Automatic annotation (TrEMBL):
Ranges annotated as spanning the membrane: 28-47, 59-82
Name of this protein: DUF6114 domain-containing protein
InterPro entries assigned to the protein according to its UniProt record, in alphabetical order: DUF6114
UniProt source species: Streptomyces caeni
Region named Disordered: 137-182
Keywords for this protein: Membrane, Transmembrane, Transmembrane helix
Annotated coiled-coil segments of the chain: none
Length: 182
């Protein structure tokens, strides 16, 4: 290695930040964070005792165990969104349902804070889709290879000049994809 190599002279925090950004970009990070954070107010408020001077307000409800279970499940779903991204649809739908169940069970879903975080995080998890890796698309562009099958041209001028629709269902020929019987 030479003294001018960029990997050797970088600070370890810069390398950590770059690696964390790369890791965060390959999974539904913000959805997992919202779902994880939604579990804490749902778990906490049913067991909270607020002190106002000499007055103690106990928020203990009969559904305290249910609130604890909902909160723990939301925290586990948030962590699973980070480390097992293939369960994102299940975790998103489950967090939305648990957030809705937390409304009647645990003090309006942790005073609506946990409820809203669970709904937003669950929606983000369901909507997240893995992106295309930039390195693979750059390699294909450099090599000039496309994913088009043989015989189909990907030139911009060919799309206008010749129809590429081989199914025979296009508005130009009057077919809409339904078969006529008789």
């Amino acid at each position: 290695m030479s003294a001018e190599s960029p990997g050797q002279n970088e600070h370890y925090l810069t390398v950590f930040r770059r690696n964390f950004r790369d890791w965060r970009g390959t999974r539904p990070f913000w959805a997992g964070l919202f779902v994880l954070l939604s579990g804490f107010p749902i778990m906490y408020f049913p067991y909270a005792h607020l002190q106002l001077g000499h007055l103690t307000l106990a928020m203990a409800t009969t559904a305290g165990a249910g609130s604890l279970i909902i909160g723990v499940l939301l925290v586990v779903l948030g962590i699973s969104l980070w480390f097992q991204r293939h369960v994102r649809t299940f975790a998103g739908v489950a967090s939305i349902l648990l957030g809705l169940v937390s409304l009647p069970v645990s003090n309006f879903g942790g005073f609506v804070i946990g409820f809203l975080l669970a709904l937003i995080g669950g929606a983000m998890a369901v909507a997240w889709a893995p992106g295309d890796p930039e390195a693979a698309s750059a390699k294909q562009a450099a090599a000039g290879q496309d994913d088009a099958p043989e015989g189909v041209s990907t030139e911009p001028g060919d799309a206008v000049d010749a129809p590429n629709d081989l199914s025979g269902t296009s508005p130009a020929n009057g077919a809409n994809g339904r078969h006529s019987a008789g």
